[in-house]
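Is this the right way to post structure tokens for a design question? Let me know if I should format differently. Anyway, here goes:
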């Protein structure tokens, strides 16, 4: 499964990068395949693994912020591995054929 999620601290002011870094640190330390961009972090693994990482990432932000917003989207497709790379490669292939 691939999970794309965003954790946003609320009530801490406009600059939230330091708080978001706490969440991303949890993802990077998880050992699961992941990518972070300006809007979301995508994570790939089994249901229990992914949800545990999301839970811990939220907890890391929640430890320092009075309120936390979580946006989550999941692609649940058993048997697919390396989806983070394969999905992008498929789109790139179509673009190259252009």
């Amino acid at each position: 499964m691939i999970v794309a999620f965003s954790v946003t601290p609320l009530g801490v002011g406009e600059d939230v990068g330091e708080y978001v870094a706490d969440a991303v640190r949890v993802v990077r330390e998880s050992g699961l395949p992941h990518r972070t961009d300006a809007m979301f972090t995508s994570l790939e693994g089994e249901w229990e693994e992914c949800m545990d990482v999301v839970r811990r990432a939220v907890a890391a932000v929640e430890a320092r912020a009075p309120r936390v917003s979580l946006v989550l989207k999941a692609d649940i497709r058993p048997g697919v591995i390396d989806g983070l790379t394969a999905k992008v490669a498929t789109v790139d292939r179509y673009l190259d054929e252009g």
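Format looks fine. Someone answered above. Worth noting: DSSP finds three helices and four strands in the chain. Residues 2-97 form a domain with the Alpha-Beta Plaits fold (CATH 3.30.70.930).
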